[in-house]
Design goal:
The chain is mainly beta. The chain has two helices and 23 strands. It is globular.
């Protein structure tokens, strides 16, 4: 059955435009595709994790969040999430001059040139297909392209590895780092500290009632997941309830309507609740479930 165009569009994750900090407010224009949305202001901590400062629901296409007092040089970002997925803005340094508003011009989405090892820190990632079927899309494009061999793609790319396996190579502190990921759909970003973050993508289609019921009764029918394997690189995965920072390991991140489960097959993982709190070290054979922030 072919779905109407409107129904397909409603499954697209949000898009953030022109994020900036002005007079103590984190502001941005947001496309939510008609879905209910919440916005979260986050601050980069010294250990490379992002701490939630403020969470607010909003309507329309404009986000304006008042930030707590911050000092020059600290870094913040905006994350907007709907039932169709999440979007994260560029990293904004407190005290920097606002970015000029560019004149809108059509930008064609070019097919990446295969360039093994061509990753540039915070800008691009080298993606190699290890096995299976892999595709990608570069927002704001909604079209997926098949991927084979190795290609250098921009940060923010969305990779579909449900039936495939990829090796990612990024640059951190002037050195290449690599990890293998498979079994899910995810976006790739990298912060100023060199931490490469893989955020689970794809709609869970959980209503507010379903999230509450799942949290109370432990229902986990709807889910999305991603396996990762890395040896000492600066990688972490992000689900709707927690962030897992690896220490040389093999682990799985699974999102449900109720929250996020981290399972460690080998090595150890540091798990941070996204709603705030202390991290917990999870070792081989252990699992950690973190409820989804409300």
């Amino acid at each position: 059955m072919v779905l109407p165009a409107a129904a397909v569009a409603r499954q697209d994750p949000p898009v953030i435009h022109d994020a900036a900090v002005v007079d103590g407010f984190l502001t941005a224009s947001v496309t939510t595709n008609g879905l209910e949305a919440r916005a979260r202001a986050e601050k980069l901590e010294a250990d490379g994790t992002w701490r939630v400062l403020v969470v607010e629901a909003f309507q329309g296409s404009t986000v304006r969040i008042q930030l707590p007092p911050l000092t020059a040089g600290e870094q913040v970002r905006l994350t907007v999430y709907t039932t169709a997925g999440e979007a994260t803005s560029r990293v904004i340094t407190i005290g920097e001059a606002p970015a000029p508003v560019p004149t809108p011009t059509p930008v064609p989405v070019a097919t990446p040139t295969p360039t093994p090892g061509g990753a540039v820190e915070t800008k691009t990632v080298a993606v190699s297909v290890v096995s299976g079927t892999v595709s990608y899309r570069i927002p704001p494009s909604t079209t997926y392209r098949a991927l084979s061999g190795t290609a250098t793609l921009p940060m923010g790319v969305l990779l579909e590895t449900t039936a495939g396996r990829v090796r990612l190579v990024t640059q951190a502190d002037g050195q290449p780092q690599s990890g293998e990921f498979f079994g899910g759909k995810f976006t790739v970003t990298q912060n100023a500290a060199g931490m490469t973050e893989l955020a689970l993508a794809g709609p869970l289609a959980c209503t507010a009632t379903e999230r509450a019921t799942a949290a109370q009764k432990g229902k986990k029918k709807k889910k999305r997941s991603l396996w990762g394997k890395d040896s000492g690189g600066k990688f972490r995965t992000r689900g709707n309830g927690s962030v897992a920072t690896v220490r040389g390991t093999e682990w799985r991140t699974t999102d449900t309507c109720a929250g996020t489960e981290i399972y460690v097959r080998e090595g150890s993982v540091s798990v941070w609740p996204r709603r705030g709190g202390r991290s917990k070290l999870i070792r081989a054979g252990q699992r950690q479930f973190t409820p989804r922030p409300r």
